[in-house]
Amino acid sequence: MKKRTLLNNRVLASLAGTALNCYGELFVRTSRIRIQAHPDTYRLVREQGAAVIYALWHRHAFFIPLLRRFDRRRVAVLLSSHRDAQIVAVAVRLRGLVVVEGSSTRGGLQAYYLLRRALQQCQPVCITPDGPKGPAELVKSGAIHLAQQSGCPIVPVSVSCSRSYRLRSWDRSVLPLPLSRVVVQLGEPLWLHDSLVDSQELLAERLRHGAGLAGECP
User: Fold this and answer.
1) How far is Cα 113 from Cα 123, in angstroms, rounded to an integer?
2) CA-to-CA distance for 3 and 1, rounded, in angstroms?
3) Those residues with Cβ within 8 angstroms of residue 88's Cβ, 6 or more apart along the chain or in another chain
4) Which residues of 94-119 are buried (b: 16+ CB within 10 A; e: fewer)?
5) Beta bridge partners of 175
6) How far apart are CA 58 and CA 55, in angstroms?
7) What is the pTM of this model?
8) CA distance between the termini of the chain
9) Measuring CA to CA, how many Å separate 165 from each of 46, 173, 176, 197, 215?
10) Are 128 and 184 in contact, with CB atoms under 8 Å apart?
């Protein structure tokens, strides 16, 4: 009942989102963060300013704001329109990112249109391909369709964090702790022209490969 009251009250949800943002600021200020980008990704983003689709597992959603350390543009982040995501949306906006609300079951078409429009305007977007409800590490079709129909590459993003707490959620979400050492691995950009199944398998494989390069522990 307390959780439902919090989520239904915009003021309380806003305060909770602000507190989450403050925790994120504490984590960033006390941690050593390193961004490792594939040369092709560096050239596309930092030199050419091309639109890309960042993709990372849902368990690493807390680390999405770190993309701004590499990509100086305002990344558009796809978040579920479910009430649970509203607190996260407040924190994401405070970190300087743009929130696009939608999921496969609610607001999906509108969200897809907004993401396509962002890419057309050379604005990067970020998606958790196994979200919002899993199964964990199972790439769904949305990210693949967006890449194929927009013509923009997907950049696989993997993360390792030396000090963290794993939540008891469906994806075992990673909550980083202060005084951590963090590696964000931005993989080789993927232009997906193969079948849906082959593209899903390729993205999942690249995310697993990036996890090894970043040094993520199972």
Assistant:
1) 14
2) 5
3) 17, 20, 61, 79
4) bbebbbbbbbeeebeeebbebbeebb
5) 165
6) 9
7) 0.92
8) 34
9) 33, 8, 6, 33, 17
10) no
Cα 211 to Cα 158: distance, rounded to the nearest angstrom: 5
| 98, two tokens | 């743009």
CA distances from 198 to 20, 154, 165 (A): 38, 14, 33
pLDDT digits (tens, 9 = 90+) for 31-80: 999 999 999 999 999 999 999 999 999 999 999 999 999 998 999 999 87
Give the confidence band of 1 by pLDDT, cuts at 50, 70, 90.
very low
In our burial notation (b when 16+ CB lie closer than 10 A, e otherwise), range 196-213 reads: eeebbebbbebbeebbee
The tokens for 108 are 């999906």
- Nearest Cα to Cα of residue 207 among 129, 125, 99, 110: 129
Decide if 143 contacts 202 (C-beta within 8 A): no
In angstroms, the CA 200 to CA 183 distance is 24
Q: What is the pLDDT of residue 81?
A: 65
Residue range 85-118, pLDDT digits in tens: 677 888 888 888 999 987 655 557 888 899 999 9
